[in-house]
Design goal:
alpha+beta, Nuclear Transport Factor 2, Chain: A, four-stranded antiparallel beta sheet, 3 helices, binds zinc ion
């Protein structure tokens, strides 16, 4: 049994972020990597987040706040990041619940392709 993917793609988890999080498949586009990283945040998969982080900018350690429950992801805009691109930008709004308080993060994330695989390099948060 497979549930609908939490990344908001309207696909089933097993056909969407599931195979990416398990390492079975690589994200073909920057947007797919962004979605899978949201799913990793939502499921507390630190390992996947670190694996898909640009080695130039990856933090030494990553603490996920257990009081935050990620609820939905909305892709606002994408620029490049396609099958034949080496760089891409994905703008998104991630909605979450922090200890009963609703919040959201609006960010433009920058991705690049490293040895064929997309990695997250940096992001600019809109406030
Ligand atoms: Zn997904």
């Amino acid at each position: 049994m497979s549930k609908q993917c939490i990344c908001g793609s309207s696909q089933l988890f097993d056909a969407c972020c599931g195979p990416l999080l398990s390492g079975e498949k690589k994200a073909p586009t920057a947007e797919r990597l962004m979605r899978s990283r949201f799913s990793a945040f939502a499921t507390g998969n630190r390992e996947y987040l670190l694996q898909t982080w640009d080695p130039n900018t990856v933090p030494d350690s990553l603490e996920l706040d257990p009081d935050i429950t990620f609820e939905s992801l909305q892709i606002v805009d994408t620029h490049r990041g396609g099958l034949f691109d080496d760089q891409g930008v994905v703008e998104f709004i991630a909605r979450y619940d922090h200890d009963g308080t609703k919040g959201s993060q609006h960010e433009r994330s920058f991705f690049r392709r490293l040895n064929g695989a997309w990695v997250y390099t940096s992001g600019i948060v809109n406030t």
